[in-house]
Amino acid sequence: MLRQLTISGVRSYSDTNEQTIEFMSPLTIILGSNGSGKTTIVESIQYCLTGAFPPLSDNGKRFVREPEIEHSSAVKARIQLVATGTNNQTLTITRRFQVSLKEGKKAFQTFDTAVELGPMDQSDGDDSDGGENTKNTKNTKNSKNTKNNAVSNRNRDLVDHIPKLLGIPPAIMQHVLFLHHEDSHWPLSEDKKVKDRFDVIFSSDKYSDALNQYRDHRRELVSKQTEERHRLTSLTERYKEYHILRANLRQYQDESFKNQESITNHKEIIQKFESN
User: Which structural domain range is residue 22 located in?
Assistant: First the structure.
């Protein structure tokens, strides 16, 4: 659940005057005239959570407030989002970046990206009174003085880790929660594009991969089972031959023992004849 958003230096939001938005429970409605920054709020939340720039932002260069407006060579921007993640834990995401202007060319640069895990959110989630929401925000700010856990400052790590902390699949974030209005017509696209988008949303590719892996593994096990059956048949035949050979050996040993006794008896008879 989103709780607080702080923006500065993004599109129409000044880089010298931070604007903070408190999100009420269970619903927050944002009203404003065209160009007042309503879409920027959603785009800022999306960028904070996913690291993805909005469409037509030129990889962030047009996402930051224009340096020409501020009569400056660079504009620094900051977005901080406070939310409640899984296990009711406070999640604070901060992204700092800037756009600089040099010789008429813009350059985008990321300064700092961090996620802090604070203490458990003790609110009951049903507060509709503004004062209580403000109180919860103060607790969030005070929690920074406690021992928080920084997850990472690498964007790639955050993109992978934030959805897990919030308990929301990345595909749901990208194609459902933060679907830009310019791409909202995708359900009316051709069948293949709609199917591909649903496959991503419902992770059908993972199911297909798992099914293929199961089939390959099953095929491998069946092959091994066939080989083991042939081996078992061969061992069974050899075992039977072993018993036959062992029985023959005992028979030959018995016959050899009898022949040895007969030879001994004949030697005794021969000795008696020779002595007489």
Answer: 2-168
Residue 166's H or E segment, with its range, is helix 155-166
Q: How far apart are CA 214 and CA 207, in angstroms?
A: 10
User: Can you read off the two tokens belonging to residue 231?
Assistant: 């081996």
- Tell me which DSSP letter residue 24 carries: P
Residue 177 in domain = no
pLDDT at 245: 93
Q: What is the dihedral of CA 149, 155, 159, 164, to 10 degrees?
A: -10
User: Which of 168, 186, 218 lies at the terminal end of a domain, its last residue?
Assistant: 168
By C-alpha distance, which of 63, 71, 60, 75 is closest to 16? 75
Residue 146 shares a structural domain with residue 257: no
Which residues on neighbouring strands pair with residue 272, listed in sequence order?
none
pLDDT per position as a tens digit, 16-65: 899 999 999 888 998 988 888 898 999 999 998 888 888 889 989 999 99
pLDDT of residue 122: 58
Q: Across 136-150, 191-205, 224-238, which has the greatest mean pLDDT?
A: 224-238
Domain shared by 10 and 140, yes or no: yes
Q: Give Rg (Cα) of the chain.
A: 39
Dist. CA 268–CA 12, nearest whole Å: 127
User: Mind listing the pLDDT tens digit for each residue in 124-138?
Assistant: 444 444 433 333 333
